[in-house]
Amino acid sequence: MNLTPTPADKFTFGLWTVGNPGRDPFGEPVRHKLSPVELVHVLAETGAYGVNFHDNDLVPIDATLSERSQIVRDFRAALESTSLKVPMATTNLFNDPAFKDGAFTANDPQVRAYALHKTMHAIDLGVELGAEMYVFWGGREGVESDATKNPAEAIKRFRDAFNFLCAYVRDQGYNLKFALEPKPNEPRGDIYLATVGAALAFINTLDHPEMVGVNPEVAHEHMAGLNFLHAVAQAWEAGKLFHIDLNDQAFGRYDQDFRFGSVNLKTAFFLVKFLEDVGYSGMRHFDAHAYRTEDYEGVKAFARGCMRTYLVLKEKARQWNADPDIQALLAEINAGDQSAPAYSREAAAALKARPFDRAALGARGLPYEQLDQLTVELLLGVK
Ligand code: DIG
Ligand code: MN
Ligand code: MN
After folding, report:
1. Gap between the Cα atoms of 202 and 46, Å rounded
2. pTM confidence score
3. CB of 101 closer than 6 A to ligand 1?
4. How many CA atoms, within 13 angstroms, populate the side-chain half-sphere of residue 158?
5. CB 221 near ligand 1, within 6 Å
6. Are residues 307 and 331 in the same domain?
7. Among all residues, which ones are annotated catalytic?
8. Same domain for 308 and 345?
9. 300, 318, 336 — which closes off a domain?
């Protein structure tokens, strides 16, 4: 089995992933900071296709214009020497204290204006380096107390911001799409647009919904206790799976952002199988970071592990699709005319008049235990 990543796999990582110094709410950094240029070389060494960034991962928030220019020149040179691409960019609207009450949904209109200001400059930076996808994760867009904000007003503020930024991108003539990344909580007590479903409903209320999709993250739907594949499938079916954040996460825990497939192998398998079966052509972005125990060799092992597990599961999906026992059970399960009934008055009358043997419908055995066991044995390598 070939487990060496290629550009065709479109594996990408954010600077903030392999560059995570290992700080957590209860401990100081365990790794020295690497520069964006050094991180590009780390990712190139592991075989990644692309590198993404928040504006301030690359350009410090208080950098001068000349410092910005030098940083961009150095970064661009590293991209050229490694052939790494920048498919996606995003804005850090969560670190700076100015955003402590949110960015686009903050009660202070000056903060909301500053968030638009910062995002437009960050969009310019992303486009300058080749990004065609722009992610919005609203880490601070929420509340600890609903006494502080009317949630319907917050949604209106979100809509005003995204309508303004879509108009900016159109006005600039940028080839750029937006991907909203939901999360139910953390760092805020509750975050608005908490799930993929909420984000999909919101997108339909925008002036230019065609420009906006979603960036589902495994950990975030798991934090909400949801089936990640179902969220991804709904986004895909709606033509809104613009990007995806792959990682792993135990249910009912803080945002762990673990290495892809390191917690729920079976759910990771069904996800990879879906993405490959439907021909998802977007980036496979690993928004995860290494354990705090690791040095930079461990960080590289983390990055390789994300990509290797994806490739193993991609091969397992091919085997699943080719397995005669599995396919025979699927044929049995899906027997009969699966076409949707077209409505007509006659069809409705005939269906209402049609007799059904309800007992027989309920008595039919479905070989799901066999099918799932075959899947498990294929994943365990005994099939
Ligand atoms: C967290 O899951 C968020 C931030 O890391 C970033 O804004 C976004 C990009 O994938 N994911
Ligand atoms: Mn996360
Ligand atoms: Mn993410």
Report:
1. 38
2. 0.97
3. no
4. 28
5. no
6. no
7. 54, 57
8. no
9. 318
**Residue 342 maps to a domain:** yes
For the CA of 137, the closest atom of ligand 1 is: 7
| Calpha distance 312→205 (Å, rounded) | 40
Structure tokens at 117: 């200001």
Ligand having the closest approach to the CA of 217: 3
The tens place of each residue's pLDDT in the chain, 383 residues long, gives 899 999 999 999 999 999 999 999 999 999 999 999 999 999 999 999 999 999 999 999 999 999 999 999 999 999 999 999 999 999 999 999 999 999 999 999 999 999 999 999 999 999 999 999 999 999 999 999 999 999 999 999 999 999 999 999 999 999 999 999 999 999 999 999 999 999 999 999 999 999 999 999 999 999 999 999 999 999 999 999 999 999 999 999 999 999 999 999 999 999 999 999 999 999 999 999 999 999 999 999 999 999 999 999 999 999 999 999 999 999 999 999 999 999 999 999 999 999 999 999 999 999 999 999 999 999 999 98
Q: Which of 218, 284, 274 is nearest to 251 (CA)?
A: 218
Q: Which ligand 1 atom sits closest to the C-alpha of 136? A: 7
Residue 364 lies in domain: 324-380
- How many Å lie between the centroid of ligand 3 and the Cα of residue 240? 16
Taken in order 339, 341, 344, 347, the sign of the CA dihedral is positive
Distance 256 CA to ligand 2 centre (A): 7
